[in-house]
Amino acid sequence: MWTLVFAEGGSFLPSLYAELGHRIESQSPWSHRADDATDVRELVFDQVVKTPMGVKEAHLVEEQVAVVRSVDGGAGPVRFVVATETASTGVPYADYFLVLNRYCCWADPAAPDSACFLFISSEFKWIKSTMLKRVIAKASLARTAEYYGAWLAHLQKMVATAAQPRQSMATSATPVAVAVAAASVAVSVSVSVAIAIAAASGLAPSPASGCS
């Protein structure tokens, strides 16, 4: 899962963004920061945004910071975490907030060896004050929900495609099941989505531990 979505030179984001009509301007390679043991890269892209004032093209700069975390003193499954901070320009009030996303991926030793879990959270960080916070947040949340719907559908498609060669060689194969484990919009105007991707349904992820 980690390799599919975040590996250097991977096709997940380029193919997803092409499908959504976004245009990637640049994506730097991962570079290691020795001071905090993280890997960092920058993604620059344009996307078409529907606003009350018509369709606009937003210019976005996203910093991605990756880190590997151990759980329970190394006894638990290792978490691969990518935290992103996205700033945008080109649409009204875009410079009033940042979008913070967090992707946490791990395999569960107690689950089948083909099972892994992915937890995604998204929230706003306001950097300027405005009386239109609720209006802006509502519109941004709608775009976030729409984006992750497309993101998940694209991931399902790529996981199924990647699983086909293994399934064709096996005498019997369990289909990949994708279950949305939880989705909520909190009062603080943040949205959290927990997604379990496994070889069997009913595997409940525990996203909080090790994902912060």
Automatic annotation (TrEMBL):
The keyword Nucleotidyltransferase does not apply. Residues 1-163 form the VASt domain. The chain crosses the membrane at residues 176-200. It is found in: Membrane. Signal peptide: none annotated. PROSITE patterns: VAST. GO terms for biological process: intracellular sterol transport. Its main location: membrane. Keywords: Membrane, Transmembrane, Transmembrane helix. One of its GO terms (cellular component) is endoplasmic reticulum membrane. GO terms for molecular function: sterol binding; sterol transfer activity. PANTHER family: GRAM DOMAIN CONTAINING 1B, ISOFORM E (PTHR23319:SF4). This is VASt domain-containing protein.
